[in-house]
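Researcher: Going back to the complex we discussed earlier. I've cleaned up the inputs and rechecked each line, so this should be the final set. Can you rerun the prediction on the complete assembly and write out the structure?
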Amino acid sequence: MAGRLIGILAAGLALLAAPAAAQDHARAAWVTLHSKAMEGNLEGNTADRTALVVTPPGYDEHPGKRYPVVYFLHGYWATPQMYEDMAKFEDAVQGAAEAGNEVILVMPDGYSKLKGGFYSSSPTVGNYEAFVAEDLVAWVDANYRTIARREARGLSGHSMGGYGTMRLGMKYPGVFSSLYAMSSCCLSPMAMTAETATRIEGMSQEDIAKADFGGLAQLSTLATWSPDPTAPPNYIDTGLTDDGKIDPLVNAKLAANAILAMIPQHLPALKAMNAIGLEAGDKDFLLAQNVAMHEELARYGVAHEWGTYDGDHGNRIAARIRTELLPFFGRHLDHGN
Amino acid sequence: MLNKALAALAALAALAVAPAAAQNITAPPPPVPAGITVEAVTVHGASLEGNLEGNSADREAMVVLPPSYGKEPTRHYPVVYYLHGFAIDGRNFYNFMHVPEAVAHNAAAGREFIVVVPDTLTRMGGSMYSSSVTTGDFRKFIAEDLVRYIDSHYRTIPTREGRGLAGHSMGGYGTWVIGMSYPQVFDSIWAQSACCVSPRTETVESATAMAAVPHDKVDGSGFGMRAGLASAVAWAPNPQNPPYFVDFPIKANEDGTRAVDPLVIAKWANNSPLAMVASHVGALRSFDAIGADVGDKDGLIRDDTLIHEELEQFGIAHDWAVYEGTHVDKIAQRFDQVVLPFFARHLDMGR
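Model: Rerun complete. Updated structure for the full complex:
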């Protein structure tokens, strides 16, 4: 532990003082890449996306060596910086490397005007799914010494990032070979009610700017899954009709993006994974739908690891990345040896 | 033309009045104009292996080659994949559509294509071109297995720019869902009289009736019921629930009453082109061109108008036409005179 701590300090110093020098310890760097898929979204979310890239110790000293990549998708209401502050990924990657599991870890920016793009494809919010699975992966492969094939790419994430892990895993089985989803959100179909739609339609831009988590999350998911490019300023369709009912098509659109509804059409993709890991805290407010996803995969005969642990939605993320997520990818990714 | 009209009437009659008879529509072999070569090939679909309904993984495909194909041994051709509807197989759809004449007419006007009509008939009367462990992964079969086979056995233009996807009714539905799922494979798409566009819903009564159809009586259950069962097994498979291997959209409440199962309806919504558009805008915009049409006396006109309006709302450019006709009486003519010329304007024609 002392060694690890010193490692962090050394890595921090390296960042500050000598980014081009030899790399004895895992190193975190913030990079910016252009995503063509993100261009033209109506919320004005930037197409120049930041990402945290953590290279393992020895990356500079072994210029002929290539590494598998673990992609990590952060959660809603958070920037990647907040996840880095909480999880200290360079420490986690350092620890994994010391255990013989040398990986590059990449965390892209999934934040949006409404605090999260849900790694989906929406003309309002942007095409985050193609940003991650196409533009980001191509950029990382072009700019780092990766093992540039699916067997060496793992996808993971927490909460909204767990949702993104399952969604992109199902839609891009040719890109990723193993998935680890922590405390995933948005698994069960959501449904708009007239009450909620009325509340959302009554929100001013000022209300939106100061809304709390519960006040904003449904607006954000509507922007993602029920976009309407003809309806400024929010470019969403709440489904609220003139007679105070909800257009069933809006609920169908929300349902069409729920992981539990997507699974049966994507079983070949899920079965093509080398490994899938799912977990949630036993006091997690999303436990029930994560259990439902585990049971659904079991019912469909999709092999996966599943575990609950003593914790809530967010209090063990940093520890679980170290004790579960990275070792999982250590077991299942192609390390090129 | 008379022949065509009679065939259309026969098809309609089969749809309307013969629920207990043999269910699948047939049509006599079409004329094959001089110079046109037709090959019936068998394509193995790795994506269809192991399906729980026991549908064959070896599928017939009718391959219609244009007149110059045999004379110009180095020339490569664009391919239009043409998907059939419900309760008909690929060969009878090819017959009904007079595909060889359509290829000949277009070739005479300088538009030479290979047209491929794959067979996807299943035990329930249609695959719905979906990815079901019960039915088979027919989306992947079309977009990967079939395309790979055709590109490796014929002188195609083996790139996205050389491939069009079209279909009628369930095949129009297939055009939408395969197009949205595999935009990197096809350059342009055209849906004729597409079915199943809006999310399908049920009542307790209709869902109960669906779940009560004996598995060996599907063929006699009527066109609508059979189409519902085909949709159910395609969209909400359950490998643990024989003999249908399906989750019917009905569940028992704790008090013993029954209710429509919202998760099954959600799974169906995930297969509705109308519900899919909003999440596939990038894919749809990536097409060189999109077209859709429907007859003004077609019962599907409302549904097809809805997807036209949805595409408009999202600013997705597309050709759209309502013509004088029913669900079937003009579709062969439209394929010849509208759909193939559309692809000629947009595909890489190789010269």
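Model: Worth noting: Chain B touches chain A through 37 residues (CB under 8 Å).
Researcher: Good, that matches what I expected from the previous run.
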